[in-house]
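Input/output pair, single chain:
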Amino acid sequence: MVRLKIQENKVNKERKYLIKIFKPILIVMIIFGFNYMSCNRIATRILFSFYSLTLMAVFIYSTVRCCNIRWSMIWYTLEYTGVVVTLLIYRSKILVYLQKLIHLDTYLRISFHHYYRTRRKQMMIMLIVLMVRLCHTHTYCSYYNCYNHIVLYLIYELSLFGMDFHQVWRFCMFEEIWRRLNLLRRRLEEFPESDIYLYVKNQKTMKENKIKFCFFLYRYIAELLDLISPELDISFLISIVCSLPKLILNVYYILLVIDRHWRYETLGFMLIHLTLIAFFIFTPCAIVSYYGAEVQKIRLVLFHQLIYENDHHTIEDIRFFLQYTYLKPFKHKIWRMVQVDLSLPLALLNLCTTYVIVVVNFTQVFNRAD
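Output:
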């Protein structure tokens, strides 16, 4: 009880810190033209739309002016354009999501150290991605002499940074849901002999029925995922569609290097490029697959409590909770078509392998014809 009251003194500080965690990356997203502003003023929305479209036109111009333009650069530009236009059409609910996340963290008794670790992890991921992207674009543009003007090169570099930061943001949003599911499971496991759940709100210690309140938190997390899913799904689908040709082309180029049609110096930035594409596409699939693992663990905890429970009302609550977990198993699908889990990377690799074989056969046919 004393420990919970001490935590209440930190609640306001932790809530402010939660906003500070995501505020820098949100500002970066807005600077790069991604519409995460939740403003009701028509003039502000029109002004930001004009800014985003102007920035998009500048980035497209820098890509077109490349002296040695490649298909991968075109697909990056299409990906950036698709995400920016989609976010301009769709009104983001990210601020509503963050406000609901604050209330959920109060119920889950999340400490200040969790926010500190989250921010540090975000900064580390962004720094690593930034260094890898700099290494790739610098070696690529230096080898092919892509730009005659340094300004155009810097603009193109900034467009790649914006797309990379957006994909890191998407990864962080998927991970936050998984962290809350993980904490819910741990709260359900603690003190199995007690059916009381304690938390602090408005400087008061609140006491709830453990099973009923954890069921409420499970539904709350599901509603958060449904709230944030539309904008994450469309951006992830655009990334998948635009990344698949880049995967195919890079694998084909590596085969050309192995067959000594291209120089071995080009192998380095091709492998770096493949690493970036694989990270941005495969890591969200890995995180979403953890949703199902946490739900399975929650079901196991409920089954164990169901075995040893004697109270009839609690048994009914546990059974109702279990039935809901089967109705809402946190299996994530993009527009109810594309299943997001570890099977998606395997399907993309299979598709990539098929089309690489087709491209190799076509090139051999045309070479023989020549």
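Residues 210-258 form the longest helix (49 residues). The mean pLDDT is 82.
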